[in-house]
Write a structure and sequence with these properties.
Elements (H helix, E strand, L loop, with lengths): L1 H20 L9 H20 L8 E6 L2 E8 L2 H12 L6 E8 L1
Parallel strand pairs: 2-3
Antiparallel strand pairs: 1-2
């Protein structure tokens, strides 16, 4: 009986530790947010790739808690603003930090 209590106490402790480990903080995402952000990043990259006026190979996309950061280089101011527009049109994007540079 004592071994059973120790076993259940150990299992509860491990379960609690696992749940706490999946919790979000200001600098860390929950597991669900990570999956959502990965999907947003993929959708943004696809939208940029599908836009003929943008060279997608020179644009980097990162997402954290729905905030998308664009970095890299574009050919002109029109492309810079077009990349921001395309990104904002993607469902799930909360904010766009457009750090693209004109080459």
């Amino acid at each position: 009986m004592k071994m059973l209590k120790i076993f259940f106490a150990t299992m509860m402790t491990l379960t609690l530790a696992a749940l706490i480990g999946c919790a979000e903080t200001k600098t860390r995402q929950s597991s669900g947010e990570y999956v959502d952000d990965t999907a947003i990043t993929t959708k943004v990259k696809t939208a940029i790739y599908d836009e003929p006026s943008l060279k997608s190979a020179e644009i980097n996309v990162e997402t954290f808690k729905g905030v998308v950061q664009l970095s890299g280089f574009v050919g002109g101011l029109t492309s810079l603003s077009k990349a921001g527009e395309v990104t904002r049109s993607v469902r799930g994007v909360k904010l766009v930090n457009n750090d693209l540079r004109v080459r």
